[in-house]
Amino acid sequence: MARLNPDEVIISKIAADFPEGFRALFITYYKPLLRIAEKMIGVEFAEDIVQDTFLTIWNNKQSFDTILSLKSYLYTSIQNKCLNVIRTNQQFEKYKVEQSVEPGEEYILDEEVISQLYQTIDLLPEHYKEVMLKSMEGESIAKIALSMDTTEDAIKAYKRRAKQILKKELGDKAFILLFL
């Protein structure tokens, strides 16, 4: 019998209403999701967005086993919730990423483009996908190399090739790659 990856174990435990599945989800993804939310909307609302995402999962845990990619689901959920906050605050046209981008850099994220990006990442070869997702979580090249038991040069090559594939697949929406 094939072994389940950690995300599949989390999904099955949450869907089966086992509290340790939700605990594992929280421990694994809270900080990376919080960093993404902080980058998109700032510290003020980020924790509320992440907590709301976890609450939504808890309230809908019976249908949680239909999730194919946990990381994609979580990151898309966070980004969509952040975009809703931005829209509500009438800041959708332009907003500043305050903590991780150099001062003065601004960009617009389109919900459809982000969704398409994650769908395209899911189609990448496994090692490219892993590098891109970890990179998007804010992990350094060195940390990714260590976790994948390979060299930093190999990780850089994987990331470069993954971006080339994404650029080809995303076409005119490839501008989003500037932020990865």
From TrEMBL:
Gene Ontology biological process terms from the UniProt entry: DNA-templated transcription initiation
InterPro entries xrefs: RNA_pol_sigma-70-like (IPR039425), RNA_pol_sigma-70_dom (IPR014284), RNA_pol_sigma70_r2 (IPR007627), RNA_pol_sigma70_r4_t2 (IPR013249), RNA_pol_sigma_r2 (IPR013325), RNA_pol_sigma_r3/r4-like (IPR013324), WH-like_DNA-bd_sf (IPR036388)
Annotated keywords: Sigma factor, Transcription, Transcription regulation
A Pfam cross-reference name: Sigma70_r2
GO molecular function, one term: DNA binding
NCBIfam families to which the protein is assigned, alphabetical: sigma70-ECF
Protein name: Sigma-70 family RNA polymerase sigma factor
